[in-house]
Write a structure and sequence with these properties.
The complex is a heterotrimer of chains A (221), B (320) and C (834). With 221 residues, chain A is of the alpha+beta class. Chain A is built from ten helices and five strands. Chain C is built from 23 helices and 31 strands. Chain C has a seven-stranded mixed sheet with strand order 3-7-1-14-11-12-13, sandwiched between helices. In chain C, strands 9-17-16-15-10-31 form a six-stranded mixed sheet, with helices on both faces. Classes of the chains: A alpha+beta (221), B alpha+beta (320), C alpha+beta (834).
Chain lengths: 221, 320, 834
């Protein structure tokens, strides 16, 4: 929302002034600043090199912060680099395989979709350090809670190679959470951002609608 | 997947804090992130931001309210929430429809109205990874699209040598609806908000942050509509889109993706003002809208003129 | 009469139909929940990551490269440059099965935009790889490039890929006719073939039509980008590959490759991963190589993808060799837009026809990767005079190869019927039927052939056309071109396309070399063992069905071994998608029959049957046949035929054999020669199966947009093994074909050769809301040479539909657009709107 500054000299000059104000600001924001030079640890390569070493003993900085979040019902605490995506965190740290990568990070395929605070979001386009306090659900979690969308997808064969499927599952579940009585148009709308190269598209609406029916029946019982 | 280069990340609590970072650093704001993070991943910015200033940490920027005959939308309001909001759908149809037709459902769940109106152009030379083309918009000498493949480029000429188009869906709707954009410094009329300012697409000054969108309520007897032409029914940016506000002897019609900035088709507005909204008049207004359109070298974008004509016609008919 | 050498005559087990009603998919839960591990998900202790530089130029040479800063980064473990002795000169084969030219594994010259080349970096994380690549500075020498094959085929064209064919086309003889000196320096090959007398055919025609079709290059845009994980433990090599076939073909120097990249050998040849120019010692005995095919994200890339994927594997193997025991995961970042291209090219067509639609002659000249005339149209028509000429030259758009042999031929074949019908005012389905036949023979002749060779007397095209017409209501809806405007203002059009099936059982030869199935009965269940690529088409359920039906087992009692890795000693048919079922089932049925005999023998001893019966003396054709006939298996029970109440669950029979001693069957199938043809050595075989597809479109004449409102696929599948899987091929293929027909196109900058839309925002793959649900119709004529007369339908439909929009748009508007993809700008132009 704002233009980058172009003049290098001006930047340098302002950086001196900025250092103080940044400290002030961070203090206000309730964060702790370590004594290390900003960025030096993360750039050493050492921290990235070894996951074990990355953890607790590295002071927080603008490049590395601790976040707490809920993933599939469990609470977790991670030290994350600021330039990690949520997808990186979920895969590399949390060990989940469902947030996939098809489009290479353009935000164009939906295969990395996870549910964050009730919204279906692209984990490749989400900065991990902004997820402090977030509640995340992935396809693994949806399966663990035995959500009927899983069985419905299996029954309707709404997948072939399955690579993009967890992204559909999360998108569909997010829809059902908010709209227990969707129309076929609602389903098609909600899944419009999920690409499937096997083109299993026509199997999805009946699967999601069936899952919605199962959920409604459960509720009424 | 390509990883992001290092950046620092700050969470300001207030707009002032955000502004102070933006003014003192090579920094960029991040709201929904769907535009800036792509630009950073593929390294298409002339300068990679050293700092990301997270506006989501500022409270009170996400709201939709109607007060004093005006719709007010906080800059951080997600597009999906705008698209689904009943009073916007009924009272400001063009905006709701524009938000609904933006990108994909996921992007709409993440992307904010503030970010949407500030997004960078999608010109495929500008966007080619790793700053492959040092084009005019990036401070270079040449517009590569001019001699290259410009099938999606401007039909109303270049601005400062650049023929990229503004890809926004909400931008023409806000323009047609005569909206105002309230920033950290001032209130800007939509008509004046967009311009070719390298590499961006708005007149925002460095450090200036969009806070609110203000849309005057439509008076009785006025209707608005939005129509989009894209190859696919979702995900795609517009080939051409158009929003119209018609009634009570007035008309505001705005095309987008046809020019460096949203393009009001004054001739068409003048034509349709006060006239009956019907097929014949709408068609004539469409013809008037493209009077000044011209093809680029190679004529690859010629089809867009016909599409623009049709979009104007259909946007007008949408106000019937 | 059932004949061992004629799989199409084999009796279909009676339980087959019942099984079909409820076939669960074994891998469903894992795939749907994200638990399935694809190659990109493989994560090993101590694993290193690797990435390759990609070229920003269409054609450029690395003049100099500075990698010092990259090497200094802590966590960067290896920087392998193109000029490193370990890799320089290391060559893969070309992108076509014929290996027309060679491409370097890590070249110092890029031949196309985003060519992976120059340098590979290995580091502790992906992020460090990205950083290392950013730190590398390259000085490029830009070279001339050509994007248009017609231009590159000209004699005075600049030489644009000298390294790929070092001696030039004229010196690179592969025995191909036409590699003559008068050709362009970029020419890979020219070909010409004539069947009958084309000139005479044209002279007999009432009308001769000439037109030129062109097709832009599209992309596989597969979901899982290229990736390979390799690990050396001393001289043991572990590989996790993202590939369709066992990768050794393009990696070994033994020369022991068979068939195309799709043909996997059940063993690794020597010299794996090495090349004469640079032997890093990256080779080992096949028994020390373990290949794993994790779950595969689809790619649909045809041969170009496979060729590049082979190079990728080779590079990973070499990088891993240098990593001293640590696994290396070589990753590519994007969908692989740089390779593929399949049917791209131009076709100058000339067709002669009689007034009734009988085609007397045709001549197609293609500038593209494969001659279109000689295979498909000859295979599936009675047309007597056919000529195909072709020129194939390099262009700087990435190596292209046919999406299988058929794709390139589909468009001219189908447009031909549309054109003739249009010219003569006929219904295109009538024209297709009128010319139907096999290799120049009319259907009457084919019927005689069917009688003589144990096939049912059926007319496949007639059946699928009737089926499809009924489903779409063709007779009521089809109209004269440009005659129907809809209430919404759009023009209504009907489109039709028909062609033969592709995987029709000629694979009988390759199925023997391809498939080495092993069945094991243990713990009451039969497990199918064999290396394969589990790519999602669900060939597996078909295999389980086939084995269960032959054995008399319940479907649930036959499993397929997942996560398979056993040095690929056992190998199921590859590629798993397009030909898997039709190729592997012959082996599986043979194995199931052998296993059944063994089970029955064993059960007899448990059931107090024949005394003195010995283990292992039975088997198919064994001397105990008459006595064994008293027992059979049904619903996973062995029973006495004369006393059905006397029965025993198979699990007990297996138990009787002791858990530790499973019953195993892995028979060899008779010599390929006797199976490859119609039972006669050197005999001809004929493609008797057909497919017909129908669409309805609405053309918005103000925007040029073509909306597809109805799709009907009718496929003769010969014999059906897996309904859900087959239908998946239909609707999946249809959507892919329509994409290729109307939206998918790789766009290059004409000035710089840079790809402009190599991402999923600008490359338009259809979404959920862009196409209607496809009506899937399957006919079973049993006219294939495969098991029970099966055909394979994989990949058929995607190619068959890739030109269907042309006829539909003509029917809607009366204008021909045969420049694919048919995008709105072309429609507007044809309509005179711009």
């Amino acid at each position: 929302m704002s233009d980058n500054k172009n003049k290098q000299a001006e930047d340098q000059e302002k950086k001196g002034a900025w250092k103080l104000s940044r400290r002030e600001f961070l203090k206000d924001a309730g964060l702790v600043i370590g004594s290390s030079t900003v960025g030096s640890i993360a750039f050493s390569g050492k921290a990235e090199a070894d996951t074990a070493e990355r953890a607790e003993n590295i002071p927080e900085s603008d490049n590395s912060v601790t976040i707490e979040l809920t993933i599939n019902g469990g609470k977790y605490r991670y030290r994350v680099e600021t330039n990690w995506s949520l997808r990186q965190l979920l895969r590399d740290e949390a060990g989940l395989t469902s947030p996939k990568d098809w489009c290479g990070g353009h935000g164009a395929c939906g295969s990395c979709t996870v549910i964050m605070n009730g919204r279906p979001v692209l984990s490749c386009m989400t900065v991990a350090c902004e997820c402090d306090g977030a509640v995340i659900e992935t396809a693994e979690g949806i399966a663990k809670e035995k959500h009927p969308v899983i069985d419905a997808y299996i029954k309707w064969n709404a997948f072939q190679c399955g690579y993009c499927t967890p992204g559909f599952i999360t998108s569909a579940k997010a829809l059902l959470d908010r709209n227990p009585n969707p129309t076929e148009t609602d389903v098609r709308d909600a899944l419009g951002g999920n690409l499937c190269r096997c083109a299993t598209y026509q199997q999805h609406p009946p699967a999601v609608l069936e899952a919605a029916g199962v959920l409604r029946n459960k509720k009424s019982k | 997947m390509k990883t992001w280069k290092k950046f620092r990340h700050v969470n300001p609590a207030t707009i002032d804090e955000a502004v102070s970072v933006l003014e003192s650093e090579n920094a960029s704001v991040i709201a929904g992130g769907t535009d800036i993070l792509g630009a950073m991943r593929f390294e298409i910015l002339p300068e990679y931001p050293e700092v990301l200033v997270n506006l989501k940490s500022i409270k009170g920027l996400e709201y939709i309210k109607e007060e004093a005959g005006m719709l007010k939308i906080g800059a951080l309001t997600r597009l999906e929430d705008i698209a689904k909001n009943n009073s916007i759908r009924e009272g400001y149809t063009a905006l709701a429809e524009a938000a609904h037709r933006t990108a994909s459902p996921h992007i709409r769940e993440m992307g904010t109205i503030g970010g949407n109106i500030c997004q960078l152009t999608r010109c495929w030379y500008f966007r080619n990874p790793d700053n492959r083309f040092n084009c005019i918009r990036k401070g270079g000498e040449k517009c590569y699209a001019m001699a290259g493949d410009n099938r999606y480029h401007s039909i109303f000429g270049a601005v400062k040598g650049c023929i990229a188009v503004n890809p926004g869906d909400t931008a023409p709707a806000l323009t047609a609806l005569n909206a105002k954009i309230k920033t950290s410094r001032r209130v800007i009329e939509a008509d004046k908000f967009w311009d070719m300012v390298k590499p961006g697409s708005t007149i925002l000054a460095p450090g200036e942050i969009v806070k609110e969108i203000q849309v005057p309520a439509l008076s009785r007897g006025m209707k608005s509509s939005f129509i989009k032409f894209a190859v696919r029914s979702s995900i795609d940016f517009p080939v051409v889109n158009c929003a119209a506000l018609i009634g009570k002897g007035q008309a505001r019609i705005c095309l987008n993706a046809v020019h460096n900035m949203p393009y009001r088709v004054i001739k068409a507005e003048e034509f349709i003002k006060g006239k009956a909204v019907n097929e014949k008049n709408a068609d004539a207004a469409g013809a008037a809208a493209i009077e000044k359109a011209r093809v680029l070298p190679g004529e690859k974008n010629k089809w867009k003129i016909q599409i623009a004509r049709t979009m104007v016609k259909r946007a007008i008919l949408g106000c019937a | 009469m059932s004949d061992q050498n004629r799989p199409w005559t084999w009796d279909i087990p009676e339980s087959s139909k019942k099984i079909m009603d409820n076939m669960s998919r074994q891998d469903a839960f894992e795939r749907v929940t994200g638990h399935a591990v694809y190659t990109r998900d493989v994560d090993l202790p101590g694993m290193l990551y690797a990435k390759v530089l990609t070229s920003p130029y269409a054609h450029a040479k690395i003049k100099s490269m500075n990698t010092e800063n990259a090497e200094k980064i802590i966590g960067v473990r290896d920087v392998m440059r193109f000029d490193d002795p370990d890799i320089s000169g290391n060559r893969g084969l070309g992108s076509d099965t014929g290996a027309m030219y060679s491409i370097l594994t890590l070249p110092g010259v890029s031949d196309f935009y985003q060519h992976p080349m120059g340098v590979a970096v290995v580091a502790d994380s992906e992020e460090l790889c990205d950083r290392a690549l950013r730190e590398i500075t390259v000085e490029w020498e830009e070279r001339p490039f050509i994007l248009d094959m017609e231009k590159s085929s000209k004699p005075d064209a600049p030489r644009i890929m000298p390294e790929a064919m070092p001696m030039g086309a004229m010196g690179f003889g592969f025995g191909m006719p036409g590699n003559q000196s008068k050709g362009s320096p970029n020419m890979v090959t020219t070909e010409s073939r004539e069947i009958g007398d084309v000139e005479k055919g044209f002279s007999e025609a009432d009308t001769v039509i000439e037109y030129k079709i062109s097709r832009a290059m599209n992309s596989p845009a597969g979901v899982e980008a290229m990736v390979c994980v390799a690990q050396w433990k001393n001289d043991f090599l572990d590989l996790w590959v993202h590939h369709q076939a066992n990768p050794q073909k393009n990696l070994t120097n033994s020369g022991m490759s068979m068939g195309g990249p799709g043909a996997g050998m059940p063993f690794m040849g020597p010299g794996f991963g090495s090349a004469p120019e640079s032997d890093l010692g990256a080779s080992t005995h096949w028994s020390k190589i373990t290949v794993r095919f994790p779950y595969q994200g689809s790619w649909f890339g045809g041969l170009a993808w496979l060729a590049y994927s082979d190079l990728f594997i080779k590079l990973a193997v070499i990088l891993a060799k240098r990593a001293h025991g640590r696994p290396v995961k070589l990753l590519y970042d994007e969908s692989g837009f740089y390779c593929g291209g399949d049917e791209a090219g131009t076709y100058a067509c000339k067709v002669g026809a009689k007034k009734d639609g009988t085609i007397t002659a045709l001549h197609w000249h293609m500038v593209g990767v494969r001659n279109p005339a000689v295979d498909k149209t000859h295979e599936c028509t009675k047309i007597l005079n056919i000529k195909g000429t072709q020129t194939w030259s390099f262009i700087n758009k990435g190596h292209q190869a046919c999406f299988r042999h058929g794709a390139a031929c589909c468009v001219p074949h189908n447009v031909m019927f549309d054109m003739v019908a249009g010219k003569l005012g006929l219904d295109p389905t009538e024209v297709a039927l009128k010319n139907d036949g096999c290799a120049g023979h009319d259907w009457k002749w084919v019927t005689e052939y069917q009688k003589e060779n144990g096939f049912p007397e059926r007319h496949s095209l007639k059946e699928v056309i009737e089926m499809g017409k009924k489903a779409i209501d063709w007779d009521r809806k089809w109209h004269k071109p440009g005659a129907k405007k809809l209430a919404n203002g759009r023009m209504h059009g009907m489109g039709f396309t028909s062609i033969n099936v592709w995987h029709w059982g000629r694979g009988a030869m390759s199925m023997v070399s391809n498939s080495y199935a092993c069945l094991i009965l243990q713990e009451g269940k039969v497990t199918i063992i064999g290396l394969r690529c589990n790519m999602g088409t669900d060939t597996e359920s078909g295999y389980r069905h086939c084995v269960a039906a032959e054995l008399g087992f319940n479907y649930e009692d036959v499993l397929i071994q997942e996560h398979h890795a056993d040095n690929s000693a056992f190998c199921l048919a590859q590629p798993a998608g397009s030909t898997g079922t039709v190729n592997a089932t012959v082996q599986l049925v043979t194995a199931a029959r052998e296993l059944k005999q063994k089970i029955i023998e064993q059960a007899k001893t448990m059931m107090g049957g024949m005394s003195g019966f010995m283990f292992g003396m039975g088997g198919p054709g064994g001397q105990k046949e008459t006595k064994q006939a008293e027992y059979d298996i049904k619903d996973s029970y062995v029973f006495d035929k004369s006393n059905p109440d006397s029965r025993m669950p198979v699990s007990m029979a297996a138990g009787g054999f002791m858990q530790s001693n499973p019953i195993i069957a892995h028979p060899s199938v008779n010599s390929p020669i006797s199976m490859m043809t119609n039972g006669m050595i050197g005999g001809e075989n004929y493609v008797m199966g057909r497919q017909a597809h129908f669409i309805e479109v609405e053309v918005d004449t103000e925007t040029g947009m073509v909306y597809v409102s109805n799709v009907v696929c009718a496929n003769d599948i010969g014999h059906l093994f897996n309904r859900k899987g087959a239908e998946g091929q239909q609707y999946g293929g249809a959507v892919m074909g329509l994409g290729r027909s109307a939206t998918e196109e790789k766009i290059y900058c004409p000035e710089t050769g840079v790809g402009l839309n190599f991402d999923h925002i600008n490359y338009h793959l259809g979404t959920m809301n862009d196409y209607p649900a496809v009506s899937c119709n399957l006919a079973e004529t049993h006219l294939g040479y495969g098991t029970y007369g099966a055909f394979g339908i994989g990949e058929n439909i995607g190619a068959a539909l890739s030109g269907i929009t042309a006829g539909a748009v003509y029917n809607a508007t009366g204008k021909w657009i045969i420049d694919f993809p048919i995008t709105p700008d072309k429609v507007l132009k044809a309509l005179g709107k711009i």
